[in-house]
Please model this.
Amino acid sequence: MTDHYCVLGNPVAHSRSPAIHAQFAAQSGQDVVYEALLAPLEGFADTVHGFIAAGGKGANVTVPFKEEAFRLSNRLSARAERAGAVNTLTFTADEIAGDNTDGAGLVRDIEANLGFPLAGKRILLLGAGGAARGVIAPLLACKPAGLTIANRSADKAQALAEQFSDIAAVDAGNFAKTAGSRFDVIINATSASLAGEALPLPAGIFAPGSLAYDMMYGKGETPFLALARAQGAAHLADGLGMLVEQAAEAFLVWRGVRPDSRPVLAALRTQLAA
Ligand code: ATR
Model:
C-alpha cells in the first residue's frame, strides 16, 4: 500500500521537497507519494488533522509553521525540543510525533558533502531567529573550538546563547562585536539575503581556509556569499545541500532508510542554474 506524506507551508507551491522525496522513493524502492499542501495561515492544525484523517503518515513543515508544529506535537524528539521547532511530523494511530532534521541536515552538508569537519573549528553563527536556534545544538555536538552568535539585536543573540549554556559556553553579541576575531566557519542564518541585503560584518573575520555557508540559496550568489568572497573566505556554500540533507534525514526518520543525497543534490543544482 502506498504511504502518503506531504510538506505543509504557506506559501508552498515553490517547494522542492516533493521532487526530492520522489527521487528518494524511486532510489530506495519505497512505495511513497509526497505532495505539497498549502495550509491557510490560520488553519495549520486543521490541515494536519485533515491529512491524518485521509491516511497521511507524515509531513514536513516549512515557513511559517515550524513553531506551531512544535506545539501540535504530542511527543518531541530531543533535537526538536532543543530547536523549539518541528520540521518533521510522524503520524501514528494515537500520536503526532515531532522531530527536527534541519540541524542534522546542515551538519551533514558541511561535514560529509563539503568535507569540512567542524571539530576544533571556530564557528560564527549569524542570526538569532528560528533558523539559528534550530542548528545550535547539532553544531555544538560537533565539538567546535567555540561558537559565537552574532545578531543585529545583541539581546536576542545573548538570550539564545543562554538557552544552550548547559551544553557549552556560547559567545554572543552584535555584528560589530566580532571585530578582531577570526572564524573558520561563518554560517548565515539571518533572513537578510531574502531582502537582498548584505550584513554589516567587520573586515578580517574570515580565517585563512575558512568556509562561508549561507542557509539561503537561489539563482546566483547570495549577498552574504558575495561579501564572504570579497572578504577572502576560501570556500563558499549555499543552503541547497542543507535542504536536501534535512529531507534525507526526514526520509530516514519515516522509512528507516538513508537515501543517497548526492545525485539528488546534483540534479537540483543543475535545475537551479538553468
Ligand atoms: P527565521 O525563522 O528565518 O530565523 P526569524 O525568526 O524572523 O526568521 O529571524 C530572522 C533573523 O534574521 C533574525 O536574526 C533577524 O535579526 P533581528 O533579530 O535583529 O531582527 C535577522 N535579520 C532579518 N533581516 C535582517 C537584516 N536586514 N539585517 C540583519 N539581520 C536581519
Q: What stands out?
A: Residues 128 and 157 are 5 Å apart (CA to CA). Residues 103-238 form a domain with the Rossmann fold fold (CATH 3.40.50.720). The first helix runs from residue 17 to 28.
